[in-house]
Design brief:
Number of strands: 9
Structural class: alpha+beta
Number of domains: 2
CATH architecture of the largest domain: 2-Layer Sandwich
Shape: globular
Bound molecules: adenosine-5'-triphosphate, magnesium ion
Distance between the termini: 40 Å
Number of helices: 8
CATH class of the largest domain: Alpha Beta
Largest sheet: 5 strands, antiparallel
Helix content: 40-55%
CATH superfamily of the largest domain: Phosphorylase Kinase, domain 1
Strand content: 15-25%
Length: 263
Amino acid sequence: MCPPLSRNRLRLDEKKLLVLEERIDGWRARVKDDSQAKTYGEVFDQRTLMVIYKLINEGAVSTVDYPVSTGKEGNVFHATANGEPVALKIYRVSNAAFRALSDYILGDPRFKGLKGSKRKIICAWATKEYKNLERMHLSGTRVPRPIAVEENILVMGYLGDETMPAPMLKSVKLKDPESVMDDVIDNMKCIQKAGLVHGDLSEYNILIWDGKTYIIDVGQAVTLDHVNANEWFKRDVENVARYFRRLGCDITPEAVNQRVRGV
Ligand SMILES: Nc1ncnc2c1ncn2[C@@H]1O[C@H](COP(=O)(O)OP(=O)(O)OP(=O)(O)O)[C@@H](O)[C@H]1O
Ligand SMILES: [Mg+2]
């Protein structure tokens, strides 16, 4: 899954690489505290830099511009590919707070037989997020458009514009919560149609742009035959019902469940 990669094997565009390295150093210098600087050091380990070089050489990425979010497991960056904005989600490989990703991967028939190093598991995780995005995209779920995955880096469509990334559902004051809820439920129906359960669906993993909701962070999504599928589906349904109920919608988990499953 992670073939050996060496700088010599790649046709490197030295100028682009220099720009990228200067940019990363600039972010590192600007951050306020040591732990954030350490985060950048961890995200851009040597191998990850090589993967970015590879994506640049293959034309999947043209520029890496600025960080959009620094999470526990990885960072998301605004980047471009052939003039179009894209998002790079870079999973951190040297990560002390590495959660039990393998719990999700084990038990998923698509990843049967995967053993090995943490790096291998993280690469499989990024691939899993990509495949989940593809399946959801095909079933009509509003998700960032899957573009490429290479080792621990996922390239997808960017939600937002040059002034700001699309905000999380939880940060937006909704004029009409009911219609936004309907939109989320439509997305949930499409996820079901894809044969998947999101597994971490909440106001934190739904972005809003142009009045439409987009589902993100789909790495942990599992197929309907996964041992935890029912339990996680129930949790997703409860999160959505709780959030919109708090905003005054007349909704219960049972009603969301019925609408999503069409029962
Ligand atoms: N395609 C995208 N376009 C624009 N912004 C994005 C995109 N994907 C993710 N983001 C931003 O990056 C943040 C983190 O993304 P995501 O939830 O996928 O990662 P995560 O590993 O779960 O991080 P966290 O631990 O912060 O939740 C999102 O909350 C959102 O602000
Ligand atoms: Mg998230």
